[in-house]
Structure to design on (165 residues):
């Protein structure tokens, strides 16, 4: 009798607890940004333009970027500028450029491109939020401004693109 009762209790316990999971086992995905791409471009010496992502649905995105000069050229007065572009609900290509900038005579982080090295809005990485139409690429680029073209300097870029909505 006790064996039958024990088996019944075990079966009932199993039936009531199977399928239940702790909150940490399956977190809700609602409202959580999704990383669609991230990467790093290390010790680059040339300008570039690359597609980060082409969304299959319109949405709100956030790009976080950090850039730093890894090899300087003392005495140079050239500049590197990081920017990106996308197409929003207006149908027009929008450009955020420069987002980050750096003169290439000293090592270190780029400054917020809306300022200048002597009067930066802030140093460090930046985060920008923007709306993108489906089927239109989000691109990013690094351009060089100087008298003679890239001059032996090198930079690294670290980025993460998230879909917010």
């Amino acid at each position: 009798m006790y064996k039958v009762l024990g088996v019944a209790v075990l079966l009932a316990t199993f039936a009531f607890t199977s399928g239940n999971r702790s909150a940490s086992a399956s977190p809700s995905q609602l409202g959580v940004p999704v990383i669609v791409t991230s990467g790093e471009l290390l010790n680059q010496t040339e300008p570039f333009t690359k597609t980060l992502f082409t969304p299959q649905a319109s949405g709100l995105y956030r790009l976080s970027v950090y850039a730093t000069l890894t090899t300087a050229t003392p005495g140079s007065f050239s500049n590197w500028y990081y920017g990106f572009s996308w197409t929003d609900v207006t149908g027009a290509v929008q450009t955020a450029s420069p987002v980050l900038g750096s003169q290439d005579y000293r090592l270190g982080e780029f400054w917020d491109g809306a300022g200048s090295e002597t009067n930066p809005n802030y140093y460090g990485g930046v985060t920008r939020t923007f709306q993108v139409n489906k089927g239109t690429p989000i691109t990013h680029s690094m351009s060089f401004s100087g008298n003679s073209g890239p001059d032996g300097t090198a930079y690294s870029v670290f980025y993460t693109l998230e879909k917010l909505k």
Residues 4-28 have pLDDT under 50 and may be disordered. The domain at 38-163 is CATH 2.60.120 (Jelly Rolls).
